[in-house]
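re: ur question from the group chat, yeah i did fold both. here u go
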Amino acid sequence: MKRNLSFCLRWLFVLALVLLSAMSLSAIKIAVLSDIHVTPGNVNDGKLRIAVDEINHSDAALVVLSGDLTNEGSDVQLHNVKSILDGLTKPIFVIPGNHEDTWSQSACKTFNDIWGNDRFVTETDSLVIVGINCGPYMKMGDGHIKQEDLSWLDTTLSERVKNGKRVLSFCHYPILDDLDNCNDYIRVLAKYPVIGHICGHYHAFKQYRNGDIDGLVCRSLTMDDTYGYSVLDISADSVKLFDKQLGLAPALKFAYRIDTDITPLPAVEPVHYALPSNVGISLVHRDEASIFTRVGVDRQNLYIGNSLGYVKAIDKLTGNVKWQFKTGTAVFSRPAPAKNAVIVPTADKRILWLDKATGKVLYSHDSNGPYVADGVINKGILLQGGFKVFQAWNVADARLLWQYDSIFNYCQA
């Protein structure tokens, strides 16, 4: 009798463990919109409205829009998309794509004004769902995750990933070579039990794996003469991705089993680059944010601007920061050193003359920004591209000498 009781208790214990494991990741469906590329009145404008209505009548718990909301990132286009998405009755979380980050009329400011931030985090009873921006920012190039966003991601996950919760990651790009710092991204995610990374950008379904992280690329709103979105069906043991064409039943595209081991993934080793034999490094400045500008140089200092809006003067001999000035907006244009001032065009339509010795403002002009191009000083004149204009400024007294105002869009270079 005792043997039978012991046998039953052991099986009850095993059954309890199985049930507990199954409950550790409860089922959830997520509608994923990506690469919707809506311009007011275009075909995608109407198709997005149909998709919103379908999602409202679906069993999706929430919606993620993983970038490329628009074609040119203009203020009109962003507000138009927002007005359509306001029709959703489900919670929605939105991150930008390269079409918002590269061609933004406001240097990415309007997106944050509308949605509050360019990153998000939300939780279910078993998941931490996190989305992050990945550029490229105002100039063509590879995708790039800002240094402060990587720090935020690590801090956020360390605080929230508790009690058996797992992580679902979103950004616009896949974690592949399209992202110039994808290894840094993976090193952060690898600390946590990540069940998948979801993205768009390719306008096609794709499944891949990098750094032991399963990646799924979702469809665009328009793809192969069809219109639709993607649906993630996440259960206790699997992730399934469905193609939801408008008006049709969902069709399974990819599925994979979730690893039952919830220990963190193995860390990805940093990449070490070999230097040429005649090159050495004597000083390194590691900033708290991403450096979007090229470097201004004079006899004593280096001048940079970063994604948190700081302009810094760095001593060339010691590497120490002599002074820093907070502009209040990301800085994309190289600070241009003159005789007694450093001239800084900003992303919020200003040109600042900062005192070389102290970083204090000598002159400030509201002009035709956002400024993202590098200015050139020649014979006492700053030649500077802005938004739809090209200008000449007198360096000594900050006077606008002339401007050409027939450029179709902002100057990138």
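okk and heres the other one u asked abt
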Amino acid sequence: LDDLGVDDRIGQERYPELVVLDLPDVDSVVADHRTRVEALLPRVDAVIWVVDPEKYHDRVLHADYLARLAGYQSQFLFVLNQIDRIPAGEVERVVADLVEALQEDGISDPTVFALAADPPDGPPRDVQRLAQHLEEWADVKRLAVEKLAADLRATATGLAEVTGVTSAGLDFDRRWEPVRMATAGRLADGVAGPGLATAAERAGRNLARRKAGGPLARVLAALRRSRLGRALGARQDDEEMARVARRWTPGGWFDGAVSGLDQLITDLSFEAGGAFGTRMRAEFGATEVEGEIRGSIDAAVAAGGPAPHPSPARWWSLIAALQVVVLLTVAGSAVWAWARPSSLSQGRWPLPLLVGLAAVAVGVGAARLARVTGARRGRRAAAAYRAELAEAIGRHLDRRIGVPLRTLVRSRAELAGALTELGLAAAQLQRSG
């Protein structure tokens, strides 16, 4: 009574565990009365609704109270008072009309007593019948249990409606993983796209020239990488690949990569519904998701280390030695032809010339093989870099988007489990009651 703010009290000893609260009229013109009734109704165990012949169809009573509280109907009794004012033979018709109105409110089987508590021209009528019913019906423990069960059901229903936890689980992990991997792959393709592969191939060929070329090729490669070469505008492979790898620009590939993730979030928010769906749409809108994706790319590129660079093949050193032999052979053929000019005119095939041409052909073929291999190793390096980049982007996507989404979905699943337990508890209480 203290918690309810009830100060005016009258004691009674006949029913020591029973407290009767006389509430003000629900249609009272005093605003505080209605506020007080609304505050007390959810906290009492049973309610006797007393109406008179003029007000039993009152719209406020039915629309604002009874219809909204129909879930607690097992705690309700209804009294049609002042039947002494109803013409003889009309009481049953008025009671039937009241029962019909209550059923329209959702109270399927209302218990109604018709009586006259304090008629002006005689003793009370049928009050004792109500008192006898109350003595049999108002089992405090049963009422408390039924009230608690009704509260649990109402709580579960209200939470399910507000939060949208009325459907099956969202199966987030099974759906998230393929979308994350596909998105990361498309993003990596866009960042480490054809430009990087081309730069890596060029770097591989240049590396082959330096490692497997002859002395002249090595001199030219060294000149290209020197300050003089830089001053003359020669492009440096490392710098070119770093520039291509780290300076990405969104394009159509970016929108295509983002669309799959947007679609998943849209589907999840629609399926979640309620407060969870609203929160998901608010926290993971298109602008927010795009910003997180950009941040994931930047973080992955920044943490990716140096740009991909092909490694030399071990057998290129043999090609380099062969090129020295070729150079010496060509030089020897030239000396041979200079020292013995007659060798060029003797026989059908000038031997020094044939030896020199054969050496040049071997040298050119070996150099070409090394460059082709270098280009292939460059493509492999670019592919490896792309795979590492995709994995890094995927990790950042999971941390920036997947983890918050997974946490929200897990909270929804936990609430769904709690609501199921709440429903089971209400059913068990109802059976025990």
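fwiw on the second one: The chain has a mean pLDDT of 78. Residues 227 and 237 are 14 Å apart (CA to CA). idk if thats what u expected
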